[in-house]
Amino acid sequence: MIKKGITRQIVLHYFFVVFLALLLVEFVFMLAVQRYYYESIYNTISTHISNSKDFFEPISRANNAEDGNNLSRLLENLKLSNTELQILDLNGRVLASSTAFESDRAVLQTSDISQALNGAMGRWVGREPSTGEQIMAVSHKFDLGGDHTYVIRYMTALTMVNSKLLVMGLLASAVGVAVLAIVLIISIGMANSIVRPINNITAVSAQMARGRLDVRVKGNYKHELGELASTLNFMAHEIVRSNQIKDDFISSISHELRTPLTSIKGWSETLDSGGYDPEETRIGMSIISKETERLIGLVEEMLDFSKLQQNQMKLVKGTVSIREIVQETMLNVWAKAEQKQIHLKLDADETYPYNVFGDGNRLKQVFLNIVDNAIKFSHENSWIYLSVKEENGQIIAAIQDTGIGISEEHLIKVRDRFFQVNHQNGGTGLGLAITQELVELHEGTITMQSELGSGTTVTITVPALMEDTNDNGAETQSSDGSIPN
């Protein structure tokens, strides 16, 4: 007995479909064979009747014999082997029979007789009342001239034919049972070939669920099972990678939190001990303030990411000028850029508003993060180019640096949460992940192009606020020249 499960379902489905198909085929086959045999018998008798009629009727009309001579001569000349010949009057009464039955038997009223009286070749299949045997009767009307018109009726037993049909039916049933047995064996094999990989995948997934993320689905499976195995393996790989990124994040954030806390604790203890001049006190308080701001920035970054992940980030939207936001961003990072002697250059039409419908503070956060990264990874005495333009109902802002760039391997992962190309640079690895989420909340897109050693270009595209655009057609031109290609 096959245990419950997919194997049993597949086997039963195959078996049921084949069983119905065989049942239908055998029914049609037996019906066709029976029809063939019955038609053969009918055609033999009807051909004999037609030939006899064409030959005997003209002779009988010429001789114009007496009724008794006609009957005996009909019986003699029209007899057919393995059949009983009856001669009936037009009322259906038997006048003579090749088996010498009495002529005063009851009137016959079978359908073949009524068809014969109408001039057709009548046929009837049924049971003989006296014997209960199944027979076929074929009747036709003979006109011998004058008042000598009779119905010639042949009857033949179908017992032998039905016996052959029964044997053929039993043989066909045996073949059907054999076919079903073969189908059962094949369907079990096919079901196992499908279920075995599923069981293997299930076992591996159960191990993964228990924390064994090093296991993989092995085997070259095809079609949907192959896709399922590949997806499961990819999922395990991504979970391992995500866990590794989380571990790296915890290590990095622990370091990031410990460093400012150590500075704050050290200077606070130093200042608490007293005995320092005002300048040293000012320096200490400045360091405590900066490190506190740094801690606040780290915490706010993690809180922002948590809100985004839980869809709790609320945007206060209104009409915002992207050009003004970019200009404010440049002012905010100007001091940091000056420390590395990095030059910032904006390319935007001063008369064009570049308005969008969005949250100004969050959009500024987006540009601050990208420009800050550009400064962090740029060489000293280099340039960072910023441009804003409107194209096909979209505001397109680009930030291009000539810094260290990002390798192709890291470029596809750089926007993943917690991912950091270089952990020694500090940070949480959430900046670009948050930036992408904020841009998407504004129904925009962010793309990155980079080449290791040549720099990076980040492009932000958001829908323009069409009601506030003008049609002056002014071309984008910066005060100190255009961005070189």
Q: Would you kindly provide a written description of the structure presented here, covering whatever features stand out?
A:
The structure is a single chain. The chain is 54% helix and 16% strand. The chain folds into 3 domains: 159 residues, Beta-Lactamase, CATH 3.30.450.20; 87 residues, Signal transduction histidine kinase, dimerisation/phosphotransfer (DHp) domain (Helix Hairpins, Orthogonal Bundle); 151 residues, 2-Layer Sandwich (Heat Shock Protein 90). The radius of gyration is 51 Å and the shape is rod-shaped. The strands form 3 sheets. A 5-stranded antiparallel β-sheet has the order 2-1-5-4-3, sandwiched between helices. The chain has a 5-stranded mixed β-sheet with strand order 7-9-10-12-11, with helices on one face. The chain contains 10 helices and 12 strands. By secondary structure, it is of the alpha+beta class.
How many H/I helical runs? Answer: 10
Helix content: 40-55%
**Terminus-to-terminus distance:** 76 Å
> Could you name the CATH class of the largest domain?
Alpha Beta
List unreliable stretches of 5+ residues: 468-485
- What is the assigned CATH homologous superfamily of the largest domain? PAS domain
Question: Any guess at the CATH architecture of the largest domain?
Answer: 2-Layer Sandwich
Judged by helices, strands and strand pairing, the structural class is alpha+beta
- In what range is the share of β-strand residues? 15-25%
CATH level 3 topology of the largest domain = Beta-Lactamase
Q: What overall geometry do the principal axes of the alpha carbons give?
A: rod-shaped
**How many beta-strand runs?**
12
- Average pLDDT for all residues: 80
